[in-house]
Specification:
It contains 1 helix and 12 strands, in the order ββαββββββββββ. The longest helix is centred in the N-terminal third of the chain and has 34 residues. Strand 1 and strand 2 form a beta hairpin. The radius of gyration is 28 Å and the shape is elongated. The termini are far apart. The chain is about 20% helix and about 35% strand. The protein is α+β, with helices and mostly antiparallel strands. The strands form 4 sheets. It has a 4-stranded antiparallel β-sheet with strand order 7-8-9-10, with no helix packed on it.
Length: about 180
């Protein structure tokens, strides 16, 4: 007696039954493998706003007090299932071991990189002439706001910085 698409007797599969089970299994595995990156791309942006990624910037003892110093921090960017790490220079000013202010290296005017001039004790943007005080306030130039500060945290003797980008050319600090 032969059952169509099922068991033949009690221990043998028919060719049709085997192909049916094999096809469904292969389609399920393929769907699962293709669906994971798609679900990650949909869910990740919702979780991204809640997750913060602080990067180690250096030991607090290595940062001189009262003078801006350039530090390098890493940031992770995720596009679907691809992860990319970018390195960024930031400016840190240590007021005390528990009070360190970190500035984004991007001029809020048009996004140029500014530098510290130790002779004049000020930050200067070479692109359009904006000048900033040591505390980040605008002294002169077309910059519409003070230098953008970045979130920091101190754990033990380590300084951690969270990389953020801000909208350029406006008088309010708006994260993008």
């Amino acid at each position: 007696m032969k059952e169509e698409g099922g068991l033949k007797g009690s221990s043998q599969f028919s060719r049709r039954g085997f192909l049916k089970i094999f096809s469904v299994s292969l389609a399920s595995i393929s769907g699962l493998l293709l669906g994971i990156p798609a679900l990650d791309a949909i869910i990740s942006p919702a979780l991204k706003s809640r997750l913060t990624s602080f990067s180690k910037a250096g030991k607090i003892g290595n940062i001189p007090e009262g003078s801006p110093v350039r530090l390098t921090v890493a940031s992770s960017a995720k596009d679907a299932y691809l992860n990319d790490t970018e390195m960024h220079n930031v400016w840190a000013i240590k007021k005390s071991n528990s009070d360190i202010e970190v500035f984004s290296p991007i001029c809020p005017h048009l996004g140029c990189s500014y530098n510290w001039d130790p002779q004049k004790s000020q930050f200067e943007c070479p692109c359009h002439g904006s000048v900033f005080a040591e505390n980040g306030k605008v002294i002169s130039g077309p910059a519409p706001r003070s230098l953008d500060t970045l979130p920091t945290k101190i754990e033990g003797d380590e300084l951690y910085v969270e990389w953020e980008k801000f909208q350029l050319g406006i008088n309010k600090k708006v994260k993008i």
